[in-house]
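Let us practice reading a record.
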Amino acid sequence: MTIGRIVMYVFAAMLAGVTIGLLNSWPAPTPPAQDQAQPQPRVPVVASISVKAPPSPAPSSPAPAAAPRPGPELPPGAPVPVQGEGWWRTVNGTTAQIGAGRVHTCSVEVEQGAVPPSAHHPFAAVVDQALADPRGWTASGGIAFRRVDVAQPDVRIRLTATETARATCGFSLPYDTSCYVGGVVYVSAARWFRGAQSFGGDLDGYRKYVINHEIGHFLGRGHEPCPADGAPAPVMMQQTFSVSNDAPAELTATTPQGLAIPKDGRTCAANPWPNPEVGR
């Protein structure tokens, strides 16, 4: 072997050694990203708390409206003629003396054109019943009544058309009402046939109240207020307008009716009798 070949072999061996060393020192290939184990995100642990919602409040029912107190307006009903002819016919019939003491004679009269003839005697019958009842004025003692139809009476009790009653009793109070003027009781036909709210549907009771109230004026009695809640209304209370003191107090504040009525809220029960405590 020649020296040249020996040198070439040595050079080749050295070259091979360098190559192997380079291969051993070369970094290992990095595996693809999709094959790498990905760190898993930490899921926070949340404690589950069950909270019970408060029950929804039941819908509240509206408070019942207070029942309106009966007022002075004329109750609804069949129309009543507002005008009469301006003259009265005495209803035939007389009674024996009722009560003991001074006798007060009275006549029962009806304005012509104000009511039909069929209403004349029923009107007189109610007047007789009101004056003869044991709870009436005769129970007070010293008072007696007798109805006459010819002789001059002490007091005339007249069923009167609406406009006649208003013209006689005055227009200061804007409601249908009855009154006593100069020895005559004027009973409003509108009230006689339709009553007053304070008496509800007790038309017979209201009619007897009107007779006893106006005869009370004839006897010299004045108006009275309700004395206590729930008590029978005094017959001289203006029950046509109300059985509560407040309504008459407001109505008469600018139109005095002979009595300053207290506005105290007291409300009585409707009552047609001067002496309701007396047994029948």
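A brief commentary: Residues 9-54, 63-67 have pLDDT under 50 and may be disordered.
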